[in-house]
């Protein structure tokens, strides 16, 4: 409970006086006032933007062979990710193309990426969906160092992927290029946009950052802390997951069927069995911890560092990876930064302290560029759990009237809310 109170106090600090591009609660109309609930349940189905169904979208998945050396160095059971896959939705004729970068640990077909694809495809865009540089498939098949977190390096890896997509889809008729990303993908998009200013492969017309971390270290620390929330009913004999599953089981028994999607989660939170704030906080933190474990395990294995998997340990298709993943779960994101990211940064770039690293990988590093670039905008939520004290102030100073601040929505919970969708399309249409 103490952690929850500290987080509530933190959220109070970041809600600063209204800006011209801010919306009031009543004007906005998004119904979920609890940021944890919004983060988990998203937007009620009847309040979402109207978008085409998958059957109405001309789309297919493709593969890129970017790191052929990994095909020999990675274990056999990594065969599905030795080439990088992406998804392309194409219009019938010439159209603008939208690149979407997924959030932390997310695959190119993740739910939020899919939702954004439907929105932009319905508005007449070709759409390319990309995995996050922190996803195990991107780390395996596209990343040079397989140690994500150095934002400039992640941007170079993404840029190479985008160029490879363009080359592979050379017959696609593209009138102009746009870029967006959500959560960590938004931070990636900012660094990719700056890189494109010198390389000029795409000359992005507009770039939209959705719920980006400002200080990357603050954001991951906030999410890591959620796992430490004290939850009633959890002791040496009952785990957090058992408590949640027991509630979900009782809920499904009452409904008579199982349908695990955002609409169900919203309905579930309106029932008497709804999760408490502490339980929701731990659920969000647990999802992030699993993403961190993926990063920690994959980076260690590809680079043969021996921190999680012994360097000479034989791994083949019959090897159980569960013991190594459990070991990776014991190492949080701060552990990853200390044991893998900083040593790599110092070895490759003669890096210095943690403070210097945070400055280089966060939006701070791009402050002058972001302030002076009218094509880049931000949409964020005042109650987003990844923000720290002073972050919204930074966004206001840097983006001015290119910042749209919503009063509610948690972390990306309102991305498919019809008001947000309308604002996204208006921005890209100019």
What does this 3D model show about the protein?
The structure is a single chain. This protein has an 8-stranded mixed sheet with strand order 1-2-4-3-5-6-7-8, with helices on both faces. The protein has helices at 2-14, 25-28, 35-41, 70-73, 111-122, 136-141, 151-168, 184-199, 216-226, 240-255, 262-269, 277-303, 322-329, 333-349, 354-361, 367-372, 391-399, 418-429; strands at 59-64, 84-89, 95-101, 126-130, 174-182, 206-210, 376-381, 403-406. It starts with a helix and ends with a helix. 47% of the residues lie in helices and 11% in strands. The protein has 2 domains: 2-8 and 223-349; 15-38 and 45-215 and 363-429, Alpha/Beta hydrolase fold, catalytic domain (Rossmann fold, 3-Layer(aba) Sandwich). The protein is built from 18 helices and 8 strands. Residues 1-20, 237-241 and 257-261 have low confidence and may be disordered. With 430 residues, it is of the alpha/beta class.
